[in-house]
Task: inverse folding
């Protein structure tokens, strides 16, 4: 990729992230769970609370990369640091690096002073690590890589660049645990203009086919889980909590912002329940060096 291309894409992504995530930590704290996890939970039973289901999701990704035995971990799209906190305090990982494009999120994570944790306000396109990692986790960032202007071929090229870099950043036995919303039985042309324009501008979802095409020859897909009903439930839980704290939320961000989020959560829950969009959790293992030639294509 050219430097100017990366610069333009990074600037657009950063602006889009700030548009959404810099609404303020206090606003999100009203309706997320205590860990400030802003991604799909894993629900197992009717008695699950949002906190229980979110903790199960976090543990899923930690188990996927074998975090208990890891010395170094990269979190791409670290949010408010729920994974980083557990890497530092529960898994005792010596060094964890989190990447985010939100100044609010980065400031919050730094304020927690988790041991061994470094957070960078940086796009993965510009990240140049000085170490290799035993595991990489990316939850809810992949959706922001491509733009609505990208063709499917351009999206696959971009995703392949991401997988190539992750492969070079991982130790030989490292694992990538990836979670992303994806198109299911809905095309990009039929996506909600409101969400594209008002909630996640300059972002476009992948399809499973685009992800697997981009990973071919670089990563072997060990497992794929579709948690779309989990995400419908998660959005409904968030919406319920936001309604409970609506007066305080309006005081913090104003009635227009609150109404926008209420509409977004309602439409998202409906989209997941109808199968228009889905939630993919993929665990990927690098192909061995005898097969991977370091340029994102299989060795001959």
Result:
């Amino acid at each position: 990729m050219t430097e100017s291309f990366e610069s333009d894409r990074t600037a657009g992504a950063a602006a889009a992230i700030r548009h959404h995530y810099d609404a303020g930590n206090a606003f999100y704290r009203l309706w997320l769970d205590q860990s400030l996890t802003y991604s799909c939970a894993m629900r197992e039973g009717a008695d699950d609370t949002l906190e229980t289901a979110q903790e199960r999701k976090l543990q899923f990704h930690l188990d996927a990369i074998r975090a208990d035995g890891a010395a170094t971990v990269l979190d791409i799209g670290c949010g408010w640091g729920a994974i980083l906190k557990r890497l530092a305090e529960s898994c005792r990982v010596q060094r964890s690096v989190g990447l985010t494009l939100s100044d609010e999120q980065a400031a919050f994570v730094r304020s927690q002073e988790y041991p061994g944790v470094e957070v960078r306000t940086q796009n993965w396109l510009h990240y140049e690590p000085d170490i290799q990692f035993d595991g990489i986790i990316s939850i809810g960032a992949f959706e922001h890589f491509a733009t609505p202007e990208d063709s499917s071929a351009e999206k696959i090229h971009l995703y392949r660049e991401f997988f190539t870099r992750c492969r070079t950043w991982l130790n030989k036995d490292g694992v990538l645990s990836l979670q992303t919303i994806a198109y299911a039985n809905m095309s990009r042309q039929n996506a909600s203009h409101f969400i594209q324009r008002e909630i996640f501008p300059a972002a476009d979802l992948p399809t499973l086919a685009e992800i697997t095409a981009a990973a071919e020859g670089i990563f072997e897909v060990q497992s794929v889980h579709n948690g779309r009903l989990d995400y419908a439930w998660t959005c409904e839980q968030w919406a319920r909590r936001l309604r409970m704290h609506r007066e305080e939320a309006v005081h913090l961000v104003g009635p227009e912002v609150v109404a926008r989020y209420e509409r977004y959560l309602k439409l998202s829950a409906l989209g997941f329940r109808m199968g228009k969009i889905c939630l993919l959790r993929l665990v990927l293992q690098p192909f061995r060096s005898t097969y991977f030639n370091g340029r994102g294509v299989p060795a001959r």
About this structure: DSSP finds eleven helices and seven strands in the chain. The mean pLDDT is 89. Residues 156 and 278 are 19 Å apart (CA to CA). Residues 3-27+37-230+279-286 form a domain with the Rossmann fold fold (CATH 3.40.50.150).
